[in-house]
C-alpha cells in the first residue's frame, strides 16, 4: 500500500502513516493568507515555503512523481474493473482515439480525460495513487498538470509550485469545511479537487493572487450541491467519469478567472462555508451511503 497526499487527505506510504505537522499555518482563511502575501509582496508558493520550510519541495517532488506514475500505469492497463459492475477501463482507449481532423480543443479534452480516467481507474483497481484531496477525486489534479506540462513545456519546479498552491486550497477546504463525501457529498471531494486543480493551473500560468482565488472559487462554486451516490458503493460510477469532467471544468474555471477576477462578488472563503453548510443540509442518502441517487435507481444487468 503506497498512497501519498496533497491537499489534506490521508497519507500512507508503504504501509506506515505519515503525520503532517499540525497547525503549521497560522492563517486560517484564504483572505488572511492573501492579505499577508500582498503586505509582504510574496507569492502563495513563497508563503507556503515560509510556513513549511524548503523540505516541502522534496515532498512535492515525490507527490508529482507518484502522480505521473499513476497516469502511466493507468494508460497501460486494460480490462474489467473488479466489483461486479462490469466497468471496462477506458483510459487507454481515450488516449489512442486521435483523428486526422481532430481540433486542438477536442484533443485537449480527450487527453485530459484520458489522464483523469487513468488515475481514477488505478484507484478503483487498488493501485498506487495520490489522494488529491481524496482517493475518489485523485484523477483531477494530476490530469491537468501533466497535460499542461506537456503542452506548455513548463519545468518540474513550476509544477511543484502549482501543486503547493493546489494543496493549500485543499487544506483550507479541509480545515474550514470538509473534503469527505460522507460529510458533504461529492462537492467536498471532486468539487475540492476541481478547485485545487484550477488554482494550481492559475499559479502555473502566472496569474496573481486574486485570479488564483477566483479560479478556486469558480471551480468549487459550480460543484455546490453535488451528491455522492456511488453505485454499489464502488468508486467507479459516477466517480471515474466525474474526475474527467472536473478536470475539463478546472481548465475552464481557470480561463474564466483570467478574464473576470476584477468583477467577482463571491470570495473563496464564502463558497467554502456555503459548501460545508450545503453538505450538512444534505440527506444522508447523498453522502456516500449508496442509498440515494444513481446508487438507488441503477439496476445492475443480470
Ligand atoms: S461520488 Fe462519492 S465516492 Fe464517488 S468520487 Fe464523488 S464523493 Fe467520492
Automatic annotation (TrEMBL):
It comes from the Bacteria. The keyword Metal-binding applies. It is an enzyme of class 4 (lyase). Keywords: 4Fe-4S, Gluconeogenesis, Iron, Iron-sulfur, Lyase, Metal-binding. One of its GO terms (biological process) is gluconeogenesis. Belongs to the iron-sulfur dependent L-serine dehydratase family. Residues 52-295 form the Serine dehydratase-like alpha subunit domain. Pathway: Carbohydrate biosynthesis; gluconeogenesis. The keyword Iron-sulfur applies. Its cofactor is [4Fe-4S] cluster. This is L-serine ammonia-lyase. Its EC number is 4.3.1.17. PANTHER family: L-SERINE DEHYDRATASE, L-SERINE DEHYDRATASE 1. It catalyses: L-serine = pyruvate + NH4(+). The lineage of its organism: Bacteria, Bacillati, Bacillota, Clostridia, Eubacteriales. One of its GO terms (molecular function) is metal ion binding.
Amino acid at each position: 500500500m503506497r498512497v501519498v497526499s496533497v491537499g489534506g487527505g490521508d497519507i500512507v506510504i508503504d504501509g506506515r502513516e505519515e503525520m503532517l505537522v499540525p497547525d503549521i499555518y497560522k492563517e486560517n482563511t484564504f483572505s488572511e493568507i492573501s492579505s499577508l502575501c500582498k503586505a509582504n509582496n510574496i507569492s502563495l508558493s513563497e508563503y507556503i515555503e515560509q510556513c513549511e520550510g524548503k523540505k516541502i519541495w522534496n515532498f512535492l517532488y515525490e507527490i508529482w512523481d507518484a502522480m505521473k506514475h499513476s497516469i502511466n500505469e493507468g494508460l497501460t492497463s486494460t480490462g474489467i474493473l473488479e466489483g461486479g459492475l462490469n466497468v471496462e477501463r477506458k483510459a487507454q482507449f481515450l488516449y489512442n482515439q486521435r483523428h486526422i481532423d481532430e481540433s486542438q480543443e477536442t484533443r485537449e479534452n480527450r487527453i485530459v480525460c484520458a489522464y483523469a480516467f487513468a488515475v481514477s481507474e488505478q484507484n478503483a483497481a487498488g493501485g498506487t495513487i495520490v489522494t488529491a484531496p481524496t482517493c475518489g477525486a485523485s484523477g483531477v489534479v494530476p490530469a491537468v498538470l501533466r497535460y499542461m506540462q506537456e503542452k506548455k513545456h513548463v519545468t518540474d519546479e513550476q509544477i511543484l509550485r502549482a501543486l503547493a498552491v493546489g494543496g493549500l486550497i485543499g487544506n483550507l477546504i479541509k480545515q474550514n469545511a470538509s473534503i469527505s463525501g460522507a460529510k458533504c457529498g461529492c462537492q467536498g471531494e471532486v468539487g475540492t479537487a476541481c478547485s485545487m486543480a484550477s488554482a494550481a493551473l492559475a499559479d502555473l500560468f502566472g496569474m496573481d493572487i486574486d485570479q488564483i482565488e477566483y479560479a478556486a472559487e469558480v471551480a468549487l462554486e459550480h460543484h455546490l450541491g453535488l451528491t455522492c451516490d456511488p453505485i454499489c458503493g464502488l468508486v467507479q460510477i459516477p466517480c471515474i467519469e466525474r474526475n474527467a469532467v472536473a478536470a475539463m471544468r478546472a481548465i475552464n474555471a481557470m480561463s474564466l478567472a483570467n478574464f473576470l477576477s476584477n468583477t467577482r462578488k463571491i470570495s473563496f472563503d464564502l463558497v467554502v462555508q456555503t459548501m460545508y453548510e450545503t453538505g450538512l443540509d444534505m440527506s444522508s442518502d447523498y453522502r456516500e451511503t449508496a442509498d440515494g441517487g444513481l446508487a438507488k435507481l441503477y439496476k445492475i444487468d443480470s
